[in-house]
Amino acid sequence: MPPTPRPDQSSPAPNGPTGVQDTAAQDGSFLTTAQGLRLPDTHHSLKAGDRGPTLLEDFHLREKITHFDHERIPERVVHARGAAAHGTFESYGSAGTVTKARFLAQKGRKTDVFVRFSTVLGSRGSADTVRDTRGFAVKFYTDEGTFDLVGNNIPVFFIQDGIKFPDIIHAGKPQPDIELPQAQSAHDSFWDFVSLHTEATHHVMWNMSDRGIPRSYRTMEGFGVHTFRLVNADGETRLVKFHWKPVAGVHSLVWEEAQIAAGVDPDFHRRDMSDGIKAGAPLEYEFGIQVMPDDGTETYEGIDLLDPTKIVPEELVPVQPIGKLTLDANPTNYFAETEQVAFHTGHLVPGIEVTNDPLMQARLFSYLDTQITRLGGPNFAQLPINRPHAPVNDMLRDGMHQTAVHTGVAPYRDNSLDEGEPVDADNDDHGYVQTERLIEGRAVRANPVSFDDHFTQPTMFYRSLSGVEQEHLVEAFTFELGKVYEQNIKERELAVLANVDADLCERVAEGLGLPAPAGVPAENVMLSPSLSQVIDTPGPIAGRKIGVVADSGSDLSGIDKLRKAAAARGATVHVIAATGGFLGKGARRQIVERSFLTVRSIEFDAIVVAGGTTPSTDIKLILMLQEAFRHCKAFGAWGDGTVLLEAAGIDESAPGVVIGATAVKAFNDEFLDAVGVHRAWDRASAVMGSVVPPSTDARVPAKKRSPRVRK
Predict the structure, then answer these.
(1) What single-letter DSSP state applies at residue 337?
(2) Is 50 helix (H, G, I), strand (E, B) or coil?
(3) Active-site amino acid positions
(4) What digits encode the pLDDT tens for the residues 610-666?
(5) Cα 47 to the chain's mean position, in Å?
(6) Closest-CA residue to 203 (of 126, 345, 123, 307)
(7) CB distance 1 to 22 below 8 Å
């Protein structure tokens, strides 16, 4: 029975349309369909064998997904908070050996795209920087039809079977009694679910890591999540995983930054993207594939390729670049484009096919159903942002919001009244003809045994991180579980972590003030250094923002030199002063883009104090400098600008702090290189309390180092 309402809760009077009292909406002890049919299993979709495709006859899956798809009108149930941009994809031509898809196979071919980034859990009014999975959805307007690659910034998902998607989202969304907390997973129902469904462990590890709070969309990876089947012109097939590699590198916020941004600039990510595009710094990504044989086993090196909670480490199968995506144009109208764009995993083109991944199989049904509800009917493809860039003759007629004026009198095949058109397209006509494959098996609600390993890859993930990243992950788990009310949920999740890594479990348990349970973590797991975001070689800084603290007595010509040096690398410089307006006169005049009142440290990737700047004790300025230093951002000062750093308690000899006599080329180059490393993690232990294990291999805790071998 439903739990008894608390004294602070109330409900509408239980009266029906005629005024007669109705029974409760949820009644009875057994799980049932909406028609009262008792159900023995809601964790597995009905498949043709435990590795087969999902069967259309699974009425429970369809009812459960359909009802979930229609829960919100008109806001998206998930991925409601989003931002988007237009751009172009250019093929390298290197994929021609594995796929006949023309937009990938032909070198130099350019395809228009529209990309929408989003968070999963929050409403449209939530903040950009919450800890959450991000959507990375790309609509390719190819001349063979529209292809939608609807992915995430995390390569694995919480669940293995799409029938459980409503469950994980219901658990992650604000709790239904008080609608709290918004856009957060730090609450009882989320951790109750993931601690009971340990298949979620790998995704939880990624989400609790720095990947859950990306610095920007331009520094965020994207993944297709599932395994796809590619078909080349000769009919040969390969299994692949899709990757988006940001040219700017993969970087994240620190937790305090994310929290500050959620309050002072909840539009942090969308503002960064739109500002970068306006400034002439487009977002750039290389599109890559991991290619594996399609030998009938649908596995590789013991990894089940149909399991969406598993990755194939890049050290086993390198990512081969096949094209470049450039986002260089903002939308004209948010509602008409970003809000009305409709993605669907079933939007495919010749040469790209799906597999029997049970999560993907459910998505093929769910996305279309969702769009029909959100956009008012089946004609959503006629909205400008959704229109294909290929000829359409679909024989579909009428329906809500029909804007096309169809001609002809025979919308059916075959016909003799409209001269037999439209005609069928075969392979020679670039028609979509699925690869023939054997489908057989008993109708069962089950997963293959290979889906049962829920801990080996989470162990690989944790042990592959650098020491500072491990510390951040420990802090995230401690924070999230510290927000959980029910003690048994905390203890259950600690038991899960004990099966991932003893060191991880002990550190989280210590933070919660609870004993660490014993587990059986995997030993001798392969390490994957590519999972770490920490770099020591300067990368691109296009789109980065540099704040320069100055006043009327500052070296304005030095600021101009730094501005030009930064612009040459695609970064922008913004002058920060006590008040707005201008500094200086004539050719050296500098516009004050930010004042102490309107700025916080989160806006900038680095801070410089210009020579000649008078030391200030303004608390807003001191706070900004101390925050940026605490967040391990690059710092610089030339001339007597160091006096202000000293006033703020910033050690000019600390890692990542660049000091020079003047803003000459050598100073600017060294400072911009420091920006390119993203953060000076060497000072993390001093300013953030992080502990980097004293190991020659910083990717493995000293007490848990493992050889780089396959299991």
Answers:
(1) I
(2) coil
(3) 79, 152
(4) 999 999 989 999 999 999 999 999 999 999 999 999 999 999 999 999 999 999 999
(5) 29
(6) 307
(7) no
